[in-house]
Amino acid sequence: MPEVALHTLRVDRRSTLLWALALAATVLLYLAFYPSIHDNAAAYEKAIEGLPEALKRLSGGTGDIASPTGYLQGQLFATFGFILLLVFTVGRGARAIAGDEQAGLLELVMAAPLSRARLVLERVLALTVESLVAGAAILVTLVALGPAFELGSIPFSHLLAATLSGVVGALVFGLATLTIGAVTGSRGTALGGGSALATVAFLYTTLSPLVSSLADHQVFSPAWQAFGYDPLTNGLDLGRFAVLIVEAVVLVAIALVGYTRRDLR
Predict the structure, then answer these.
(1) Torsion angles phi and psi, residue 50, rounded to 5
(2) CA-CA distances (angstroms) from residue 43 to 38, 48, 50, 60, 247?
(3) Which residues in 46-74 are b (16+ Cβ under 10 Å) and which e?
(4) Eight-class DSSP state of 237
(5) Which uninterrupted H or E stretch holds 238?
(6) What is the distance between the alpha carbons of residues 55 and 48, in angstroms, rounded to a whole number?
(7) Tens place of pLDDT per residue across the chain (265 aa)
(8) No. of H helices and E strands in the chain?
């Protein structure tokens, strides 16, 4: 039984629930705006056409804003929705090892007959489950309420693909944060490093199409693997999704080696 993971989930249950409700409320807000934007698409496009291309991309205004897929992809999955998932996973990753270690919360856990490797793996499991709960809140809201706001034409498989890709993409950065914390023992270093990686990857994925030399290499960004190929329109790309899984596994392996070899005194 993964006692440590279950304990972590119990301790986090209220904050995880609040995060899920906040994500669902955010999705609902975007859903509620769509009918107005759809009915006034020409005016909206005219309002943003004078913006610099970089600002258009950052605001999600480069696609067909009037279509359900273009709206959700540009305004939710490739922008604010993914950013919220990054904030959630990076924050949880910073606390998973280094945060609890600095707060003295791991001392009692490590006094039990529990290996360091198992501790890391169970904290990874808890982070994964919590990330999936956050993603489920997004997906359930889209499926349940999308039709009420003229967004019911998107196949469930594509909604699932976009949500799952976004969650796993954000989880990669959460695991990177956890790994930095496991190797260094510093919550501040983990939070700063994970946030920096997530910010650079997001901006690179969003803005690299403006520079041909950068666009040729955007496939190496976990953020692009998460939303750059537009899974909401094209469905799940198993190859790119597999790359995200491999990246996650590699990060967990580094965390295992770094934490088991680090002097905790």
Answers:
(1) -85, -5
(2) 10, 9, 12, 16, 42
(3) eeeeeeeeeebbbebbbbebbbbbbbbbb
(4) -
(5) helix 238-261
(6) 9
(7) 588 899 899 999 999 999 999 999 999 999 999 998 877 766 666 666 665 565 655 555 556 777 889 889 988 998 899 999 999 999 999 999 999 888 887 776 766 678 889 999 999 999 999 999 999 999 999 999 999 998 989 999 999 999 999 999 999 999 999 999 999 999 999 999 999 999 999 888 887 777 766 667 777 889 889 988 889 999 999 999 999 999 999 999 999 999 998 876 6
(8) 14, 0
- CA distances 57 to 31, 45, 61, 74, 85, Å, are 20, 13, 6, 8, 19
**Pair 73, 63: CB distance under 8 Å:** yes
For the chain, give every domain's residue range. 3-261
Which amino acid type is present at position 113? P
The whole-model pTM stands at 0.90
Show the tokens assigned to 105: 């919360």
In 3D space, the residue among 236, 230, 240, 234 whose CA is nearest the CA of residue 63 turns out to be: 230
Look-up: residue for tokens 């006692």? 3
